[in-house]
Amino acid sequence: MTTPHIKQKRKSASGFLEGQLLVAMPRMTDRRFARSVIFMCAHSEEGAMGIIVNQRATQISAPDLLERLGIRLTDDVENTHDGVVALPIHIGGPVESGRGFVLHSADYFADESTLAIDHGVCLTATIDILRAIAERRGPQHALLALGYAGWSAGQLESEIQHNGWLNCPADLDLIFDSDLESKYARAMAKLGVDLSHLVNDAGHA
Fold first, then answer.
1. How far is CA 68 from CA 29, 76, 91, 148, in A?
2. Cα 167–Cα 112–Cα 41 angle in degrees, nearest 5
3. Most buried residue among 11, 44, 94, 148 by CB atoms closer than 10 A?
4. pTM (two decimals)
């Protein structure tokens, strides 16, 4: 697993959504992002990057992924099954979908490989965190995602202006909850939005 070029984390500024949830408008036509909730890991004038937190991967199992990443279950089967194998695999986004990213709570931090974001959430994209989870040294909360959502400079701002997205504050329960089906409605509820009454030309948050 490798990390995209987001190491130089900028301080939040007016209009930047780093550490927030990006929520697709109901009229989103791109199937990759329909009803998606995205935790924003980085956002600056240079572009943006986030992890979708409510789409589960169905084409690959945890054991298959571990084998692909070179982590052997036979080293410690019991601990591995209790940790990494039980970790749900999500679709993090359409960019670099063959690479893994772990969004996790801040109780795990590895120098040089963990990106501290906000609200007690971090991003790590090295195999070491999976080994740590397998050995019960990992974070209390973790979400393993394949790929990420990315935008070039000004692209996300343009999509927001065209009412493609809403945004709201993030919280650990919504990010890491295993009930993926409810996350979209819950994110909308944080904005005070009733999905049954939301019109297509609603403004952005």
1. 33, 17, 16, 19
2. 5
3. 148
4. 0.83
> Which domains are seen in the chain, by residue range?
20-194 (3.40.1740.10)
Spatial CB neighbours of 64, under 8 Å, sequence gap ≥ 6: none
pLDDT at 78 over 80: no
97 SS3 class:
strand
State CA 201 to chain mean position distance: 27
Measured in Å, how far apart are the chain's first and last C-alpha atoms? 34
| Contact in structure between 134 and 77 (CB atoms under 8 Å) | no
Write down how long the chain is.
Answer: 205
Rg (CA), the chain: 17
CA distances to 3, 98, 116, 156, 193 from 196, rounded to whole Å, are: 38, 36, 36, 26, 9
Q: 88 CB contacts (<8 Å, ≥6 apart)?
A: 56, 62, 143, 144, 178
Contact 108, 133 (CB under 8 A): no
Q: Of all helices (H) and strands (E), which one includes residue 186?
A: helix 183-190
- If you average pLDDT over every residue of the chain, what do you get? 83
Nearest alpha carbon to residue 103 among 24, 59, 49: 49
Which residues, 6+ apart, have CB-to-CB distance to 175 below 8 Å? 21, 39, 53, 103, 121, 141, 143
The 10s digit of each residue's pLDDT in 21-61 is 999 998 898 999 999 999 999 999 999 999 999 999 988 87
